[in-house]
Amino acid sequence: MDAGVPRFPFLRLPEDVQLKAVRQMPMMEILNFSLSSKQTKSTVRKLKVDVYGIDVQINEKIQITVAGSHRVVLTFNDPNDMAPKAEFRWRVPSQLIPNPGFRFEQWPNHLLYIFNQPRIRNLVFDGVPCIQDLLSFRRTFDKFQSLTIHSTCPDHVAQEVLNNFRPKNKLVLKKHMPDIDHYITSNLDEIHMKTIIELDQLLIMNSNLISIRTPKFSSRDMNRFLKLWIAGSNRNLEVLGIVFESPPGLEMNKVLKGISHENVPDDVGRKFTDWRIERLSWVVYGGINIRRRGDGAIATIKYVADNRIFYMYVSPS
Fold this sequence. Notes:
Domain F-box: 7-56
Radius of gyration: 24 Å
Structural class: alpha/beta
InterPro entries: F-box_dom, F-box_Sdz-33, Zygotic_Embryogenesis-Asso
Number of domains: 3
Number of strands: 17
Shape: elongated
Protein name: F-box domain-containing protein
Organism: Caenorhabditis nigoni
Strand order of the largest sheet: 5-4-3-2-1-6-7-8-9-10-11-17-16-15-12
Distance between the termini: 65 Å
Helix content: 10-25%
């Protein structure tokens, strides 16, 4: 009988008995069990194992991480590696998983299915990838929520990744890339960047959350940005965070020049709901309120001078 399947007629047992038995297995056995047949694959899916997401990291190897209460990392030496090594959270020694005849692209699909995940959560490129043909590799991933490109990626690799891999929700760039206008105008929920950008590039972003580390913006730039926001730019924006990497940072009297605003006492808080998870919210104390013309939306802005961090939180009127 196939590895991972008990030798007695386990699959003839009632479904509820099967599920109860499989639920007691260690994660390695559950994974092996799911590879044995279509029926065992379906049984594991019905377990609804507590999984937060499935992530893929690509550098000199490929790692697929199942993040959850039982964390599993499958490591492939390259896309032609058919028998990945599995590492488990609770200090279980690494083990090779028997390959049921999968090609590499079948592994992500199998994991998404058995763990009830609609798509890859995070796709991360870090360093020089072991993949020669990124365009062909792209076909492995139909949909993924987030794309991260680390500073360790060579420039030509980072550009090729941006050209071929389009995330559904979130883009994270941890290196400077010169030609990004086409990507930052996509209707992404979140953009996180450590790069040199112009104010005009910030103004064309359509995201809900924008986080930037940059040496570029001046107090005059931020004044112009706020005036254009009041006039109607960046209408999807809900949270903006900018870290000014070069001193002297911002001079708030110049940032607010010519802008009608209200200083909020430090002991007065405003509650903001997280658009990603409705049950989550946070409270911002103090700051400065400005109002957008037209719809009356209110933005609370704060500047932490010691860390040179500018925050802007937007809520409906």
